[in-house]
Amino acid sequence: MEHTFKNNTLIFFPEGRIDGDNAENFSAQVEKISGQCTADEIVFDLSKINYVSSAGLRIFLRFAKIFKDKMKIREVTPAVYDIFEMTAMTKILDVQRAFRKISVDGLAKLGRGTSGIVYRLDKENILKVYRENWTLEDVQKEREKSQDAFLKGLSTAISYDVVKCGESFGIVYEMIDAKTLEQTILDDPENMEEYSRRFAEFVKEQHRIEIDAPSFKQQRISQAEKVKIYSAEERDLVRRALEAVPECKNFSHGDLNLCNVLLKDGQFVMIDMGEIGSGHPIFDVSWIYFFYHLREKHNIEDAGPKKISGAIWKFFAQTYFNTKDEKIIEHYERELEPYALITLLNATLKVNVPQDVRDFEKKALLSYIGRKIEPIDF
Length: 378
Known about the structure:
Elements: E1 2-6, E2 9-13, E3 15-18, H1 23-34, E4 41-45, E5 48-52, H2 54-67, E6 71-76, H3 78-86, E7 95-97, E8 100-101, E9 108-112, E10 116-122, E11 125-130, H4 136-151, E12 158-165, E13 168-174, E14 179-180, H5 181-187, H6 192-207, H7 216-226, H8 232-243, E15 251-252, E16 261-264, E17 267-270, E18 277-278, H9 282-297, H10 310-320, H11 326-346, H12 355-371
Parallel strand pairs: 2-4, 3-5, 4-6, 6-7, 8-12
Antiparallel strand pairs: 1-2, 9-10, 10-11, 11-13, 12-13, 14-16, 15-18, 16-17
């Protein structure tokens, strides 16, 4: 049986079957090899195993007692994974099925967000590929949140498969002939105003939906505690700004922009649901304000979706706040700006941002908060 030992990880590569005829021999080989080295992890790569009998399952239970938390079972084929799942072994062992591998070479790019890139996989499906620093746990959590949001009546795409794309993970969404709202506007710029206003109406409609989910406000406070570039005084300013946000149970997306909304059969649906929670609309609206006004105003070039036009924000704000009075909109912008910058600095926990950009964001945020925290009145 082949095996490798690298970076204190011992990986076994058994082949064929593990059954009553060879289970004890398999066990003896594993115990002999593992006894010759000190490993932090013992991994069984079952990509070449096509069957595991009850005798084989008992061997893995034996290994679990020997190796305890060090043991992981990976790259399990669908047929073998079904055996582990039907016997409830997945509840007591760390078992992970093999992920379908997809190459993005030649795929049309539909949009780019802070967490990854959206591709057209085929006529009926799209693929969201996450940045390499997104762990499998992060991606699976997003898929679960997306499915839960769909069941609660939110307008979101159906996610049905986690896949591997090179060193990154991705989620496949079933969206027949859908494309991002950003691409829709780029393809049809003459109707930008209509799409922007419809986007605002859609966002407002989703914000009216109450959900039982973790507090978005508390998520943001927790994230801000981990941002290393704050001094103690600066962190206190950020905390006070966040604590000023009223608690509520309304849906918040967390990364709402034109690249995370798809147009399907004339209807809007959301993707990228890994950050959803319950909270005040200011978190979503301030992020939209950042993408389509603030970064252009301050000439911020970040890793977000492609910049389209400041007109997006103008039409969105007029519709969302139900006014064309520029002074009233400017009032709301003053409320939104610090929360947009807080979200941006929190994002540095997962996105690599150049130091000069981070310094500018920090200076702009602290300068704003240092003057006054505007009361939130929408």
